[in-house]
Amino acid sequence: MRVVVISQVPQAVHGYTELLRALGHEPIALLCSREHAGRYGDAFDTLVRDAPDELDVVVPATRAGIAPLLRRYEPDVVLCSGFPWKVPADALEVPRLGAINGHPSLLPRYRGPSPVSWAIRNGETEIGWTYHRMDVDLDTGAILAQGSIPLGDEHSWEELEPKLIPCIAELLPRALARMEARDPGDAQRGEGDYFSFFGADYLFIDWSGSRVDVHRQVRAWRFASATGGARGALAEIDGKTVRVLRTSLEQADGRAMECADGIIWIVETEAP
User: Fold this and answer.
1) CA 104 to CA 2: how far, in whole Å?
2) CATH 3.40.50.720 applies to domain 200-270
3) Is the dihedral of CA 265, 249, 242, 259 positive or negative?
């Protein structure tokens, strides 16, 4: 199948290109956006410059420009993962077999732009990965393949990736095979839930809370999609505001802070 990848995430683009080739499919183009380019990290220049050599890179100026650009490539499938725009209906109608999205949750749970961060905030012990057909709503399309991934004490995507990659490699072939067979997929069960970006009420650490809640807050912000606004987890330390990047519930090198139920250690910070 001829596949156009839609993504803002360099690791996803390279991983998908290699996996698609290994499965006998033909990745032909990468479609990405300048708008909200920093939502998935400040990597837009890297994304374009280091895109796989065999991929054309196309950058529509607006959402309305997606469909005409896709038509030029006559794709069988569009594969989307990590993209800041809602793909319009006319673009979803272009690929011969449809469009598929990879979403890091067990849909219909945790629809929205930042599912891993919300799962951590809510104390989940596992997340998921779902490939689903794309429709005009966000993360509501029929499921093609789905699997779960345990959550540990990860503080970054780099730490979580070793769990994600094997799951993705297992699920994508199943999802693409169902697309190729024109399988409509399985309707999502239940109402589901949608979570948007974190609000200002979650920016600053409240040391009067529990150690576990503070630890979750720090980890959750590491996975939160950027919106251009302030980012947590912020704290006042020695009269200065810092962003806390890593904490430990076990004694560690760093600043010990008193919470409602004991000590937590600040291991890593940066200027906000």
Assistant:
1) 24
2) no
3) negative
